[in-house]
# Entry
Amino acid sequence: MLLPQASQQVNFTLENMGKTKEGDDDSIHTDAELVILTSSVLGRCAQWLGIQSPPWDDALCTENLQMISKEFERSNHIRTSLNGATYPTRLIDVGVEGTDFCRLVETKSDPVFAQSTDIQYATLSYCWGPPEESSRQFKTETSSLEERMRGFGVDQASPILQDAIRVTRALGIRYLWVDAVCIIQDDKQDWYRESSQISLIFQNSTLTICTPASSSCQEGFLKRNWTTTRIGFQSSINEAVSGSYTLRLVGEVNDYFHATSDGMSHALIYSPWAMRGWILQEYELSQRALVFANTKLHVITEHGVQSEANETVDTSECTRGTSFLPGSRNELNRYLNFLSLVENYSTMKLTHRSDKFPAISGLARRLFSGGAYHAGHMLPHIDLFWTSELRHPADRITREALVEGLKSQDPYVAPSWSWASRNHPVNFGDGRLRLVSQESDFPNIRTECRVVV
# Structure
């Protein structure tokens, strides 16, 4: 079965056709649904079947690099001061193509940065992965800071950092920001100071490298080794149409691959990368993003999305940070956008619950520049009209689980009236809200809040 150009995906279901024998451990107990994408090189066959072009064998091929360069040339880049500084505290000097040497630099003391306020740097948005993998990540600690500044070989870096260095070099950018290396991981004071600037670091970067194709720091995102099958085609309707198309196995339909999702939607919604809490503001505030998905590379700027081999993309899932800048929309729309972002954020995962506010506070400040921000709510319109979204796989929940989900969380993160106090998804209603002024709209209304025991 081949699908029209609106969707290049085929789903096959492998069913258990035989009866399972009791005690037979080798038998198949469940059905499996595979996601297979169709593609064909440009030509009469591709046009006749309505199939898009396949991705390139190399993610950093000449064609993709030219696509990136073309999109960036017509994109604006605006840099904002980082508390008086133009650059992050530390950056990785990735060196040049063909060398095996990188080093960590402190921008305030490095003469290169003292001479210019327009040096390009890239940022890496990635998933650390489970503890057994993140614990082995190449990182900077107090004891290794001087060593990192003296330099290190590319082969010493974690796989995902190695790929990020390749991308940065290929684009002609000399510097790269990666949290594990540019923040001293065992220095709490350094972490608090630098984490408070992360939103501006991503906002000011030349581009952000987004890595949905990787599920941890020990997995790169450039490798392309799909299982493919080439099938010959001869039209029975038009004898002049012949050629071939390719079936490419993407994966099995599960929590990470959804049967109704195309490559871009999957990357931005369902991938392990997309479920990481810090990702929200990293992605939303980046002015330009390179999304290395499981299927293709996508370039996102304020003009929209350009995808490898001109893939058709549902751009409704690709909202950019520029649409949330102060002044870009009226106050009500910006406020409703923030509530929508919080709902999305509440479904994401954080390794440390104490990161609940740091991982979104930069986005909130950017949305409401100059406004007061308290415990996840914006003043003067604090919205307490939220509900807990407690769900069970079978859409049922026990009384014990309900009570447990509503208990005060330990360690303490936020007051109980804040959505951030919950360790589960929250909902702000159906959006039929409008902001009112107590003085002008309802002068006789008096607001009051009391603790009821």
